[in-house]
Every structure is written in structure tokens, then in C-alpha cells.
Write a structure and sequence with these properties.
Length: about 240
Amino acid sequence: MTVGRKLLFSLPLALIVSACTTGRYVGSVGRDGTYANRGYGFALRVQHRDLHRRWALLDPSKLPTVPTPGLPIPSRDALDRDGDGMLSVGESTLHFDPTVRLLSKTSTGARADIRVEILSGPAKGASLEQLLERALRLWTRTPSITQLAAQHGAETDPVSGRMAKVTTATTANWRHHLAVIDQGTVIVEERIGRRQLVTVHVYSPEPAPTDLEQDFRMMLEALILSRRAAPESVMERW
């Protein structure tokens, strides 16, 4: 499987999100159905092809800010926004884990999670293969990558200078489609450059629907990644 050339990069994301008023790292769904996150510099075109008919995106701007079963977990802990490995009080901001969650309209129990991670410490210099293996261990809850080795395959595809790895894994009762995308150096607040990793994880209880992989590819096509986060507003600077 290949990520494909339809994964978009370098769009002037600030034009998409100029009307957003939600938390910088929360994001929201606009009038055209596009989810945009100003802090991380990415968007998801929910109206792309049949995505909006097959999946429902949980708008983070409308989610409760207290932990609720089945919903992304809110946090006001510090984000390492400059990627220097040091956390400070000034870096505290509301964000969710996963950054975005979608629920299938056609298959009971199927979900899609999109996470954006600011890489720091050892992870900052890790290869994409190492980051893929880490994601597999974490999100399939399998302690050893060798337990999945016979059940998945990954390949590299350069997309506009970015690198992405995709894989399919099967655990005891779940089917996973996973992509890790190196967003590269993203220019953020105060013109700081940091490395970001975007993970797209589509998963379903077995027996998984036959079109789950098709939906996974459609989400990758709908994903927009920018080289720059949106400029800070006057309120955000304060």
C-alpha cells in the first residue's frame, strides 16, 4: 500500500483557519466541514469524497473539558511547544489526546484517531521506522514488535519532501491501519522550528469491514499539513 500523492503539504493553512476562535491547539470544524488546528498547522477535509458520509468527526471545540469515556482526553498540561525537551508553565494550554477522533457511521466500533506529537528528547532524532515501531507497540498494545512482524508490512513513500510509513497489523481481536508522517520542521510561535509527527490510526474490531483500508486511504488524502502554524492572535500573545 502506498500513501499516494494526494496527501497535501505546504498549503497556506492560515487562510483556512483565519476565522477560528477556539483554543490554538484544540481546533474546530469550519462552515465548509474542514477541521483545522492552528497550533499544529494541519487540517482534515471532512467533505473529501465520501469521508463525511462514512465517518463522523467529533469536533474538539464542542467536547467536554473533563475526561469522558469514549471521547478524546482533555489536558491543560504543558506542551513542549518549542521541542527543547523542557516544559514551562508558559507552555500550558488546552489540548486533546487524540487530537481528533472520528467514529464510523457504517461499522460498529470502528474508530479513527489522528494525533500530532511534538518530538523532543530521543524521539526528536529517531528514524521514521523507529517511530512507526513505537506507534505500533503503543496503539496495538503489543509489547514486542516481533509479535506483529508476520502480520504487517510497511513501505516508505516520499510526498513532497516528507516521509510517511504505513502499515496494517492484526492483533487478537482488532484490525489496525496505521500511518506515521514526518511533518518535518514546522515553524511555530516566535518563529521557532520543531519536528512534528502525525499519526493516523484507523482501527476496528474483528471481523473488520472490507472497506476499512479504503477509508484509511481516504483519510490520508483528506489530510493537509502545513510548513507553518497559523500566526498567533493578539489574545494568544497575551
